[in-house]
Design goal:
alpha/beta, two-stranded antiparallel sheet, 15 helices, about 50% helix, eight-stranded mixed β-sheet
Length: about 400
């Protein structure tokens, strides 16, 4: 790893740290900290979440673990709660789609608040932030499907926020996405879509501040991030696959770049998504929604809107940059003796290129996308909603236990 710095402070992995977990446990006393894991119940049936649990068990100073769980039945929720019974810190299982939660959030429509977001990670993250910030000053988010989770992950993500003298409000992960089974490069949405897209947009509209900001992140689609309560409370949360880019846009809107850091987590692997047969499936659907999030950010922060005449240019530029990146990743893989299917990568670029024009036209026809309001906005209207949400998220579990007894 290099040691270069840029617009965003980069915390490198030099491979010389000995016991960061001990350092983390000591420093957790400085600021109340929660870890938030949004997940579907299916993750409890896979090995990754069990490994994550065993790592987190060693965090002696954690204030709370919040599991933002989407489950189909009460039995699934009870099983998830039992899964974390032996942890050395409080665990709150928030049943995000429970009957009580749905009723509570639907009732807020009378206040003009639309809080029933599209079921998915964004809605779970929004609920998790509300629950976690009741008691904690720092919140770190990790996905439930990380197969390489180690003590370095929470340590390196959280430590920059515990020493207030550095003034950091937001930490974003970056890493090397390699398949555990084959060592093949993963992360196609980042490598073959977002990277070439941002480079193409820069050529098309110039080096604006928001584009420079996005390009400063080594892995803008990383789903692992941490933030202070004051920032978390002021973030609007996107409800689709544009979550990560949308959150970067919100962070850009709320804090100076000097208060942002990105942290190298080293080797990383989690579930892989198929590219899909159409723009409604797999990575193609994901990249369509990411594109909308990027375009929205350009509108909000650079007042840039693509014209119909620019779309053909964007498609040509993207395809050329994408093909250049395929060649670069091929050489990188060859020297590191990693398997690389150049033909398959070229086909991915072609499929992504075909998305650009129709997806941009669809977005420009309806540029407002659904975002859940920030918690500071919600609490200005309903100041007890955080606590009410936490109670609703566990109310049905407690009621069932009382019926059994």
């Amino acid at each position: 790893m290099d040691f270069q710095q840029g617009l965003i402070t980069t915390i490198h992995e030099y491979g010389v740290t000995s016991d960061l977990l001990k350092e983390l446990n000591k420093n957790l006393k400085k600021r109340a900290t929660s870890i938030l894991i949004p997940c579907l119940y299916e993750e409890f049936e896979r090995a990754a979440l069990k490994d994550i649990r065993e790592v987190l068990r060693n965090l002696t100073g954690l204030n709370e673990l919040v599991i933002a769980l989407s489950a189909k039945t009460l039995e699934q929720v009870k099983a998830a709660k039992s899964f974390f019974d032996s942890m050395p810190f409080p665990v709150h299982v928030q049943w995000t789609n429970s009957p009580s939660v749905i009723e509570l959030l639907k009732n807020q429509e009378s206040n003009g608040l639309e809080l029933l977001g599209t079921p998915g990670k964004g809605w779970a993250v929004w609920q998790g932030i509300g629950v976690a910030t009741r008691k904690s000053e720092v919140v770190a988010l990790f996905d439930a499907d990380i197969r390489t989770f180690s003590p370095l992950y929470p340590s390196r993500m959280i430590l920059p926020l515990l020493d207030e003298s550095y003034g950091i409000s937001y930490v974003k992960a970056f890493y090397s996405r390699l398949s555990l089974e084959t060592n093949q490069l993963q992360g196609r949405a980042t490598r073959l879509f977002v990277g070439p897209l941002l480079a193409s947009l820069e050529q098309l509209v110039g080096k604006g501040p928001f584009l420079q900001y996005l390009q400063s992140f080594r892995y803008p689609l990383a789903g692992e991030f941490a933030f202070t309560k004051d920032l978390a409370m002021n973030l609007r949360i996107p409800c689709d696959w544009g979550l990560e880019i949308g959150l970067l846009s919100e962070v850009y809107r709320n804090v100076r770049t000097s208060k942002i850091a990105q942290v190298d987590l080293g080797l990383f692997d989690h579930k892989h998504k198929n590219i899909g047969d159409s723009s409604k499936e797999g990575l193609q659907k994901m990249c369509t929604e990411i594109l909308s999030s990027v375009l929205r950010g350009l509108m909000e922060h650079q007042a840039e809107t693509l014209t119909s005449t620019q779309l053909a240019t964007l498609e040509v530029l993207y395809k050329r940059v994408g093909e250049d990146r395929v060649k670069q990743f091929g050489l990188d893989s060859a020297v590191n003796q990693l398997p690389y299917d150049r033909h398959e990568e070229e086909l991915s670029v072609q499929k992504f290129a075909k998305l650009l024009r129709p997806a941009t036209q669809d977005y420009l026809a309806s540029p407002t996308t659904q975002q859940l309001p920030s918690w500071s906005r919600v609490l200005s209207c309903e100041n007890k909603l955080q606590e009410d949400l936490a109670i609703a998220g566990s109310k049905d579990i407690k009621a069932a236990k009382q019926l059994v007894s």
